[in-house]
Amino acid sequence: MIEITDLSKSFGEIEALHEASFTVAEGEFVALIGPSGCGKSTLLNMVSGLMQPTSGTIRYDGVVVEEINTRVGYMTQNETLLPWRSVADNISVPLEIRGMPKAARRSAIDQIIEMVGLTGFAAHYPSQLSGGMRKRVQLARTLVYEPETLLMDEPFGSLDPLLKLVVQEELLRIWEHSRKTVLYVTHDLGEAISLADRVIVFTRRPATISAIFTIDLPRPRDIGVLRGTPAFATLYEHLWEALRGEVVV
To answer: Left if phi > 0, otherwise alpha if psi is -120 to 50, otherwise beta: which for 126?
Structure first.
């Protein structure tokens, strides 16, 4: 679904990303991990068409990305809910932009609210919700117009560890049902192993790909159980060894 070839991006004299190449298959969940400032978010911006590469190419479903990619949904780490809108009205935003009729919007919103576990909260405002529930609203808003691919930039990074596990479980449940293609940026090794089919490791800036790990753990996954297994511990150790030299000075 996504083919990245010799991708580089510079900002003036600063090269963020240097000749990265990898592919993401349809329905695959791929995590990107590496030091802060190594170009992971920049890569998502280029896949979405919000930013153009300095050199190299990105192909989405065989077509070079040269403008906004309307076939992807993008969930960032920043909270972007509109405080004056209810849960339902926040989720409605992308459907309104696309001109969907009101009745069809209502049906789609009701379905997605149930999917993400927010039944009974449609009329609530962001200030009335917990941090985890607000993240669910953001996820619902990303999913409601049914993008083929999800680009996720540390979407749960601001949550406390226990709440983060709950929302990760929720994302896995939804993904198991939909099997959308996912490109997921994280700094959390445990999160990458728990969620992904493959983990791509980036070096410090200018970032290159130093390793690609296949996460050969059975699905569906119970994250709480998974993290206590020897297989998880082994993968965690190998990932940390690949990253240690990039983040420890």
So the answer is: alpha
- CATH 3.40.30.10 matches 1-38+52-67: no
Tens of pLDDT, residues 59-75: 999 999 999 999 999 99
Residue 45 to residues 144, 183, 193, 247, Cα–Cα distance (Å): 21, 11, 23, 23
Q: Which pLDDT score, from 0 to 100, does residue 157 have? A: 80
Closest CA to 61 of 1, 150, 3, 149: 1
SS3 content of the chain, % helix, strand, coil (to 5): 40, 25, 35
SS3 of residue 38 by DSSP: coil
Q: Which of 29, 31, 27, 61 is nearest to 179 (CA)?
A: 27
Superfamily of domain 71-179 in CATH is P-loop containing nucleotide triphosphate hydrolases (3.40.50.300)
Q: What are the sequence ranges of the domains in the chain?
A: 1-38+52-67, 71-179
Whether the pLDDT of residue 172 is over 80: the answer is yes
- Say yes or no to pLDDT of 21 above 90: yes
Helix or strand or coil: residue 108?
A: helix
Same fold, 1-38+52-67 and 71-179: yes
53: which residues sit within 8 A by CB, 6+ positions away? 7, 8, 9, 46
Q: Is the pLDDT of residue 116 over 80?
A: yes
Instruction: List, in order, residues 6 or more apart from 193 with CB less than 8 Å away.
Output: 199, 215, 217, 232, 235, 236, 239
The pTM score is: 0.92
Give strand ranges (E) for 62-138: 63-64, 72-75
In single-letter form, the type of residue at position 222 comes to: D
